[in-house]
Design goal:
Elements: H1 2-18, H2 21-85, H3 88-91, H4 95-109, E1 114-118, E2 124-127, H5 143-151, E3 155-156, E4 160-162, E5 167-169, E6 172-177, E7 183-190, H6 194-201, E8 210-214, E9 220-224, H7 237-245, E10 248-254, E11 260-267, E12 274-280, H8 282-329, H9 343-401, H10 405-428, E13 434-435, H11 436-443, H12 445-448, E14 457-459, H13 462-465, E15 469-470, H14 472-491, E16 501-508, E17 514-522, H15 536-549, E18 554-560, E19 563-571, H16 577-582
Parallel strand pairs: 14-16
Antiparallel strand pairs: 1-2, 1-7, 3-6, 4-5, 6-7, 8-9, 8-12, 10-11, 11-12, 13-15, 16-17, 17-19, 18-19
Helix pairs in contact: 2-8, 8-9, 9-10, 10-11, 10-14, 11-14, 14-15
């Protein structure tokens, strides 16, 4: 069972996921209107129940009033009989005088009724409807008088056929006491049944209401509306069963005319009679049904109107979605989108266009990156070849100048380290242009690192402020050249003396497209002039460096007595802060 429920829920979920937007709006409208109609129906039902409760309360009050009136009527008749039962004529057994008294009472108070005097055996002693001297029959209905003889108290009978009256009657009976105080006779009154119908007619709250009086057995004694044809009939058995279970209450029955009634009843304690008052159920259900039908009609019209509005609303929503679909399906790179007026759709379109633009830019960037990567690979291949050629030249030239193997190893290793530092610098700048200050410090790193005070090699601060960048090939050549200058200064120049000083300064040439690097040695041994024999360093500075630095570059060496001075003119490029940041350097 649970699995089937879950399967049904899953089916409904899948169905809702496949449901189109237009149908979802229709379903929303239908659900909303249906809920409103259900709520209105619930209000109508609650109002109907309240009306039923109010009508039931009103019927209960009416039943109580009628029962009190019936009881008062019976009490009055019992009191009248009790007065007659104590008359002197009856006590002296003067039946003629007593008959006159009884007829006077009937004429004045109870026209149409009759008074009967019976003994214990049921033999009628006197009957006001039978002329005097006529033989009287014996009563067949003895149940009520036996109660009176047994209890010595008044009693009211149920409905029974009246002998000689040719109509059903009731008997109100009281005991007639003998000399010993015990009942010797019973004085009975047979009132007209219209007496009770008249009481019912005095309480007509509405013309279509019905009221009835029932005896203990459930026979009708009086009813309005209705005539003699209903006297002695019985209501539905279900009502009698409920009446016997409770002294008062409210129930529903069908009248003899076939009309469903809401009935309140009340049973009299001393007689066992029941007074019932009924109102047609249609008085309550009719307005409720009318309200429900009107509500249903209004709800149907509202539903149709809302569905029509929903169709227009769905169309106004689907048009922007169609525009979004067309925009997404468009293969034109220059996509165009006209605002639709639906803010959410316009926001989605704007986000889509931005994302498409971003993706297009990313694609272009990716293609450019791929192109740069290919160029970088080609450049790297070219530079590797150049590096290998440089290493080969370094090895060859070092071997030419150094016959001793141990010295060769030392000099060649130093030159290889300088070449490695140049390669690290170029890599730090992503094989792009490198700052001139970084090139100078990379080439002279071994002589700048030792902490010596005062320093013997100083790079002028002006080099750090020069807005100049050099290409990777220029940077490599400058690093090797600076290494040779510093090595020469250690062997033969200013750095051979404790007080010797090497200063490296920078200046921008006229036009700003070239920079001048000035190498100045002071405090060293006197320089006799240009060396007679030129080693690898001199050849690198005088010949190879000018070629490696490119067109427009110049290299001058002055062997002054106070120390060697070198001026290297190199073509430069504008400083790139992004490249400096990439290399971890800053320019103040």
């Amino acid at each position: 069972m649970p699995s089937s429920i879950f399967s049904e829920i899953e089916f409904q979920r899948e169905y809702m996921q496949r449901l189109a937007l237009r149908r979802r709006i229709d379903l929303l409208i239908f659900s909303t209107v249906f809920l409103l109609m259900a709520l209105n129906g619930a209000n109508i039902y609650i109002s109907f129940q309240n009306d039923v409760s109010a009508a039931s309360a009103q019927l209960r009050v009416m039943a109580r009033s009628l029962s009190n009136s019936i009881k008062a009527e019976l009490d009055t008749r019992i009191a009248t009989l009790e007065v007659l039962a104590l008359s002197r004529a009856l006590a002296e057994n003067d039946l003629q005088a007593f008959r006159r008294q009884a007829e006077a009472v009937l004429l004045k108070q109870l026209p149409g009724s009759n008074i009967v005097l019976v003994d214990r055996a049921g033999q009628q002693v006197l009957n006001t409807v039978v002329p005097a001297g006529v033989a009287l029959p014996r009563r067949q209905y003895l149940e009520n008088q036996e109660k009176v003889f047994a209890s010595g108290r008044p009693s009211v009978s149920d409905l029974y056929p009246g002998p000689g009256l040719e109509r059903p009657v009731i008997a109100i009976e009281v005991p007639v006491p003998g000399p010993d105080g015990q009942p010797r006779l019973v004085l009975a009154l047979n009132p007209t049944l219209d007496t009770f119908s008249a009481i019912l007619r005095e309480y007509p709250p509405q013309a279509d209401w019905a009221a009835t009086v029932l005896d203990r057995s459930g026979l009708r004694i009086g009813r309005v509306p209705g005539g003699q044809e209903l006297i002695g009939t019985r209501p539905p058995e279900q009502f009698l069963v409920e009446r016997d279970s409770r002294a008062d209450g409210v129930t529903r029955v069908t009248s003899p005319e076939g009309v469903p009634l809401l009935v309140a009843y009340r049973r009299l304690d001393d007689t066992g009679w029941t007074v019932a008052v009924g109102s047609p159920v249609a008085n309550l259900t009719g307005p409720a049904w009318r309200h429900a039908l009107v509500s249903l009609a209004i709800g149907g019209l509202l539903l149709l109107l809302c569905l029509a509005v929903a169709q227009r609303l769905a169309s106004s929503i689907l048009r922007p979605f169609a525009a979004l679909r067309d925009l997404a399906a468009s293969k034109d790179e220059a996509r165009r989108y006209a605002p639709t007026g639906l803010r959410e759709a316009d926001e989605v379109a704007e986000a889509f266009l931005q994302e498409a633009s971003r993706r297009q830019a990313a694609t272009v960037s990716l293609l450019n990156s791929e192109r740069r990567l290919r160029l970088s690979i080609a450049e790297l291949n070219h530079r590797v070849k150049n590096v290998l050629a440089t290493v080969q030249a370094l090895a060859f030239q070092t071997a030419r100048g150094e016959a001793d193997l141990e010295r060769f190893q030392s000099v060649f290793s130093a030159r290889l380290s300088s070449l490695a530092r140049a390669h690290d610098l170029i890599t730090a700048f992503s094989w792009q242009a490198a700052s001139l200050d970084a090139v100078l410090r990379t080439g002279l790193t071994p002589w700048l690192e030792p902490a010596r005070s005062p320093p013997q090699l100083v790079i002028d601060p002006s080099c750090g402020h020069e807005a100049a960048m050099v290409l990777p090939s220029q940077a490599q050549a400058l690093v090797l050249a600076l290494h040779e200058l510093a090595t020469n200064a250690i062997k033969h120049g200013a750095l051979t003396q404790p007080d010797g000083l090497v200063t490296v300064a920078c200046a921008a040439c006229e036009g700003g497209d070239h920079a001048l690097i000035h190498w100045i040695e002071t405090g060293g041994p006197a320089v006799p002039g240009p060396p007679a024999r030129q080693g690898f360093g001199m050849r690198l500075l005088k010949r190879a460096l000018r070629t490696d630095l490119g067109a427009g570059s110049e290299v001058e060496l002055d062997f002054l007595p106070e120390g060697l001075q070198a001026r290297i003119k190199v073509k430069v490029h504008p400083t790139s802060p992004a490249a400096l940041q990439l290399a971890g350097l800053t320019v103040d």
